[in-house]
Design brief:
Layout (H helix, E strand, L loop, with lengths): L2 H13 L4 H12 L3 H14 L5 H12 L3 H17 L3 H14 L1
Helix pairs in contact: 1-2, 2-3, 3-4, 4-5, 4-6, 5-6
Amino acid sequence: MNSIRIEILKKYIQEDPTDPFPLYALALEYQATDPEKAWLLFEQLLTSHPEYLPTYYMAGNLLLTRNEVDRATTILQQGLALAKAQNNAGTIREIQSVLDEVV
């Protein structure tokens, strides 16, 4: 976790709360050191920016590390549907690969 990067990301979030990327990047910063804080940020993204595709893969994986397989599967399936709607072949493969391992 880089405290300088975290402060910069928080500033970006304040400057433009409609941009999902800084919130996503902040969640990634917290993922290793404070998974609960990371989850709260991912949850905020899923609610406020449901079209932001990268969230689904990372949020699903975080839940899997917490052994929350049912919740992870639901989020990954939602991400898979969004990836298909956005015609994002790379993300479709990534999410499907995780789902194949879980199911």
